[in-house]
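Predict the holo structure. Ligand: zinc ion.
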Amino acid sequence: MKDAVEGVPAPSAKLAGSLLFAQLPTSPRVSRSDSRPEGQTGPPPTARATPALFCNSQNGSVAYSGQRASVIEFSSPGKSAAARDQTSAVHSSGGDVLRVSVLGSGTSMGVPTPGCHCAVCKSSDPRDNRTRPSILLSYSGHNVLVDTTPDFRFQALRANLEHLDAVLFTHSHADHIMGLDDIRPYNLKQRCAIPIFASGDTLAVLRRTFAYVFEEAPPGSTVPLVELREITGPFDIFGLRIQPVPALHGPSPVLGFRAGAFAYLTDFSSVPPESKLLLAGLDHFVLDALRYTPHPMHSNVEQSMALVDELRPRQAWFTHICHDLGHQAANDRLPENVRLAYDGLTLEVDL
Ligand SMILES: [Zn+2]
Ligand SMILES: [Zn+2]
Ligand SMILES: [Zn+2]
């Protein structure tokens, strides 16, 4: 827990939106810059020559000079009228907007679960088809991914993800990291390293799990090209202030992330009081609610409802959902301000 908590400021009386971030300290400490050649396919990325930075960053500030379109449209029927209505109700000012795309809303085994023939796994409702948990933050032409699930390749194709600018990791469990290898197409297309932000503990697991990324690559091989950045407190990515929200996932630390009036907190079983203060005044809150019955590592529906009642976001969305919850049936039991997330759900909040 120490790595995750370290650097998180004392709670402020003004926690909503940009007011929160305007009072917080700046960039994270860079633990290591590690650039690897991508092998035989194409010329070396420019990031090799400037290993501390990436993709046209200038003077130490992380910013692209290019004009990257940020059109993320799912072809999945999961993008329903209900979701569009929800987003349009929130997005109205015409200023900078953070668009949140739920790439995956399922638990670690996904739904349907292989070998299972339960009603939810056999459901014809596309919202019951849940890939592993991940979201994409899109703003000002940038795309920041939260976690690289084993389904990342599929999710990127489904979302028409044209470019990828950074990855945040919540923690190091397999359902959140095992798609890291699939960022390689973006390395090649963008010809640069992709920065990865995570706690020190998570970075250590990434280095161990993906040792081939950080060792001398055999000639001709293609490996992810990344730069590791340890999260020790609030940090900026492309002008967006990210507030880490430490929580516990069973005995292990996990990070949620807040940006403006949006927060994502997956894979948690308890939230310490100081982190609850960081989750005040939210418009949209996407949080773990694995199932109805208790679980030692995850918040269940009842526990997550209690947290929603305490924090009072305008709208809460449950994610990391297992096959115990059918989408429609579960929603019918929830209050209007709480819905199940689903693959393809998009939300927008003003920045
Ligand atoms: Zn998980
Ligand atoms: Zn099932
Ligand atoms: Zn986990």
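The chain has one domain: 2-55+70-350. Confidence is low (pLDDT under 50) at residues 1-54, 56-94.
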